[in-house]
Amino acid sequence: MNKTIIININGIVFHIEEDAYEILRSYMTDVKRHFANEEDSIEITTDIENRIAEMFTEILARENRPVVVTTDVTTVIGLMGTIEDFETEAEQQSATYTEKQFSDTRKLFRDPDDHLLGGVCAGIANYFDIDTVWVRLAFALTTFLGGSGVIAYIILWIIVPKAVTRADKMAMKGERLDLKGFVKNFEEEVKNVHHTLNNASHHARPFVYKVRDFISDFFDHFKYFLTGAGKVFLKLVGILILMLCLTFIVMDIIGLTFFTAQGRDVFHVFPFSVINNGYSDIIAFSAFAVIAIPALAIMLSTLKVIFNSRVMGRSTGYTMLILWIVALTFLGYYSSKVVADFKEEASFSQTVNIKATANNTYYLKLNDVKYLSKEDSIQLDINDKFKGRIILNDDDEDDNRYETRPQSVNIYIERSDVSQPVLVESFSARGYSKKQALANATNSSYYFAQKDSVLNFDRTLKIPFNALWRNQEVKLTLRIPKNAILVIDRKLERYVNDLSLWECARANKNENATTATFVMTNTGLECKVDTLVQPVPNNVPVIDTIINQQ
Amino acid sequence: MIIENTQTQMRKGILEYCILSIISKGETYASDIIADLKKSQMLVVEGTLYPLLTRLKNNGLLTYNWVESTSGPPRKYYVLSPEGRVVLEQLDKTWQELSSAVQTALENRK
After folding, report:
1. What are the Cα distances from residue A255, in Å, to A281, A293, A468?
2. ipTM of this predicted structure
3. Which region among A17-31, A234-248, A380-394 has the lowest average model confidence (pLDDT)?
4. Whole-model pTM?
5. Which of B12, B45, B74 shows the shortest C-beta gap to A79?
6. Smallest Cα–Cα separation from A245: which of A311, A183, A294, A196?
7. Which of residues 69-108 of B touch A (CB under 8 A)?
């Protein structure tokens, strides 16, 4: 069995066997190169090509065959004559000086027998009779020096012919070198150069052939690359894919055990506290399957395509597909059930009275006190080890477990018509029904404390440990009378709505100020600029303390 | 080396003369020329003929016409140009002279 190629010789189409084509192509390359220095190289080679096409047509018609085979090509080449025949019969008729110039000494060719890419380096090494390694090293180094080596290589690849024939290779390795090469006199050299310059216009045309050679060469080498190095590369990519998928699946399994067996504690932390307790296992399993099955399928297909091992039958594939769809359905169903728990919203409000202060000034602070759970306190042995000591918290809020939830506290400040300042706490939550939503809202609580003129606001709304997250929120509205002065801690920036503490600090030309001072006017709160900032009273705790939450 | 060179030189001149005289008979196709030349052992392979024909054409001795072919691409049929005819007549004369000169030289050797 032989592969057949369709070729087109000047408009005539032939089916030709691959081996035969290779011989013909190599022959035509030789012929074109041989006549490249002739005045009408294109016309001559076209004549020869046409005659070859005619000979093929005659042979095929005579023997009633559709495909050109190797023997046909060799017959035609025999009739047409090889380059060696041309050289012995006709070379002297049109002896070109350029040919002569190099025939005495080495000739620069690309070496097809010792090549990594186009054989340029080996050719240069042959020309200068040095080891190929050094030339390659030089090219590699120039490549690092701005990439000039790459460009030089490509240019050389185009303009330097490939040594195809035996004669070429001999000329390349300088085997025809003899005494004549050394005694060549200066005059002759000059004449040669002159001739070469005159022939420059004739060289321009063969350049078309050189480009064509280069392109066919390039694809030749590319083919080798694909079949050889390319296969290795493909396998490496395959192994990479396999390893990635495997890691993915292993991580998936770890995740599954984490969410099911190891501990359900994770379902008390925000993104997971959304999921109803009864659904957690089934959602974990179906999420696992939804992720793991495609990863497994990619692994098996990679094995099949790249390593040619049939590890997956058709039925396995279908089973996996069905399992995946089932898992996806479960995931979708239970996710929609969870989503349905957010359908209704309910809220309720309660009002806390704030003791009016004598100077009508209030310090709004973020409650930096953090809570340790009972378990944490026992574990740390708070009562003994930390007796009489103060535990400092850093200001980083990220380590607070409640902060994984979206912000649940919003503070608004309004003008009160009565002199009594109040804080209105409005709790809201969601649920599958109004009743459920209200229950979720009442389950949550908020810590607010007044200590003299200091109003402490907690960071978050507290919801019971086992409660699901149903977007529990609290909206705090502080109503204060006109002319009241508010000194607001900059840490409250993100909790206070409709106010920019930063801009107020900037207006006072002190962007690093820890507080911003506002005055309640008829039109609402206004930043107090250029007045003396009230000194912070001594009784405000500067250091954060820990309260043992029992 | 010297003998090969001489042979090539002798053949080179005669070859062109032969080609011109073959074409002088009328419109001629390259393979017809080859057939004639092979018969007389002047040329063995076809490939060498094409550069020669191109060169003669470029020197104005030949012209060609494209003729459609049933078996393959259109063919180039060569004919002598008027200039080519003049050259051929001169070559005829030269050949006669050379031939008799060589003949005399050979006879004298015996």
Report:
1. 12, 15, 21
2. 0.83
3. A380-394
4. 0.41
5. B45
6. A294
7. 69, 71-76
